[in-house]
TrEMBL record:
Domain CoA-binding: 11-103
One Pfam family named in its UniProt record: CoA_binding_2
Alphabetized Gene3D superfamilies for the sequence: NAD(P)-binding Rossmann-like Domain
Species whose genome carries this gene: Caldilineaceae bacterium SB0675_bin_29
Compositional bias per record (Polar residues), positions renumbered to this chain: 147-159
Region feature Disordered, mapped onto this chain: 135-159
Protein name: CoA-binding protein
């Protein structure tokens, strides 16, 4: 088994992910993670058996329904659901299970390791924030986002 940092380095660069527990609820991490991965340019599949669309994209009932194998399955579900998710991830051809904080399951993680999957327990949002930005990204906000210039209100002139 590799150390956590080398696993994170390897899998944060994998282009195809699935988020189990993806959500339309902007207050939930399943939504934040899905959107952040999508915005970062990953091919990311939302998995949620209760939703047909997540943020306008087709949602899938199960990992085994995805059109291609995800390299990484990011889990944002209660630990009691983890064993089934991990088994489906293996069947779907995933290489790694990424447990978000709060989704960890010792038994599911051990099963994954015993069946050849890598296991990561970390927050992908933190890892994405820590990634170095490419040199070609402009860090200055576009002119349209610059602070407006205030002009005196002619109706309140003191002349």
């Amino acid at each position: 088994m590799r150390d956590l940092n080398s696993l994170i380095e390897k899998y944060v660069d994998e282009p195809v992910w699935a988020v189990v527990g993806a959500s339309n609820d902007k207050a939930k991490y399943g939504n934040r993670i899905y959107l952040k991965l999508r915005e970062a340019g990953y091919t990311v599949y939302p998995v949620n058996r209760r939703e047909q669309l997540i943020e306008g994209d087709q949602a899938y009932n199960s990992l085994t329904d995805l059109p291609e194998p995800p390299a990484v399955v990011n889990m944002v579900v209660p630990p009691l659901e983890a064993p089934l998710v991990v088994e489906n991830a293996r069947v779907a051809g995933a290489q790694a299970i990424w447990f978000q904080p709060g989704a960890e399951s010792t038994s599911a993680a051990q099963w994954a390791l015993d069946h050849g999957l890598d296991v990561i327990e970390a927050c992908i949002l933190v890892q994405l924030a820590l990634r170095p930005r490419p040199d070609n990204i402009d860090t200055d906000p576009p002119a349209s986002h610059s602070r407006p210039v205030t002009t005196p209100d002619p109706t309140t002139s003191t002349r």
